[in-house]
Amino acid sequence: MRWEDEKQTKNFEDRTNDKVTSGGDLGDILGGLGGGSGSGRSGIGLPGGGLLGIIIIIAMLFLGGGNLGSIFGDLTGTNTQQQTAPKTSQKSKTTMGDSTDTRKAFSRTVFQMLDDFWGPESKEYGINYQSPTLVIYSGKVQTPFGVATSDMGPFYSPSDQKVYLDTSFQDELANTYGSKGDYTMAYVLAHEFGHHIQNRIGLASAMGRLQQQLSKTEYNKYSVCMELQADYYAGVWTKYLESRTTTKGEAVLEQGDIEEAIKTASVIGDDFIQKKFTGQVNPETFTHGSSADRVKYFNLGYKYGDLEHGDVFADKGLRNPVGTPTR
Ligand SMILES: [Zn+2]
């Protein structure tokens, strides 16, 4: 991706130096809400823990089932919360640098490119668009629903319309999933931005109502559709980016960028993650969809480049809670 000289979003909060020390992190809070064990983060583990649904209402995650830190924590009983970024990181074709400052700059630039597209695009569909905010943090961060930790992975919070990102997630994608390269992170941000569009359409609140009404298994089906639609929206944005040029007149996208996104989608499906970390696959507990579906809907978004073809709910035989926007 050619991004270095492009505009960076001003809707940005640098909270990397925040001192978040209060007790009662998200695991405790959700444990209390969900009637779980309440012992730290054990509640935010694999799907099926009873608490994941609550997280989804208030925070739309990038990965299913919490994240690897919490999965490992549950499986091994060790606290992996304080994982530190490895010093060596294999470079991909484009080196975006490993410094936190470079990562902040990159994330802000991608966020601006997302805003540049979704602002006008939303207007065409009559969506009441507001620009979201990017929060970069390190380790822990205060959110409207409690203290979140980086082992949750990136997430979007509908109530304050903010995307929360710990840039060390990039190392986790590279080291755990082998997903490297700058467009991997662009796809992550585009997925979270997709949740913001869903929020503006009314899907976030509709999902909250559905969760009250449906069994956990039924609700998970809707959750999967919502997540796959966010992947579809990431594809839609990628389509736009294909024709976007830098201030110097060069194409923003480089050879291999789209393949990076597809590669990432193919290793973050619930089936892949469950198999990798538990040795089993249980589709009933999927919350984000299979790897094949994540690739499929990213590709469809990239193919059509519009919202009309993004009704994943209908595709899966469910009623779309908010319908599909039309121009
Ligand atoms: Zn998501």
From TrEMBL:
Q: Where is this region: Disordered?
A: 1-24, 79-100
Q: Compositional bias (Polar residues) at which positions?
A: 79-99
Source organism, top-level taxon: Bacteria
Q: Where is the composition biased (Basic and acidic residues)?
A: 1-18
Q: What membrane topology term does the record carry?
A: Single-pass membrane protein
Recorded GO cellular component terms are: membrane
Q: What's the name of the protein?
A: Metalloprotease
Q: Any transmembrane segments, and where?
A: 51-72
Tell me where it mainly resides.
membrane
From the Swiss-Prot or TrEMBL record, state where the protein is found: Membrane
Natural source organism: Floricoccus tropicus
InterPro entries given in the database record: Uncharacterised_pept_Zn_put
Q: Per UniProt, which keywords does this protein have?
A: Membrane, Transmembrane, Transmembrane helix
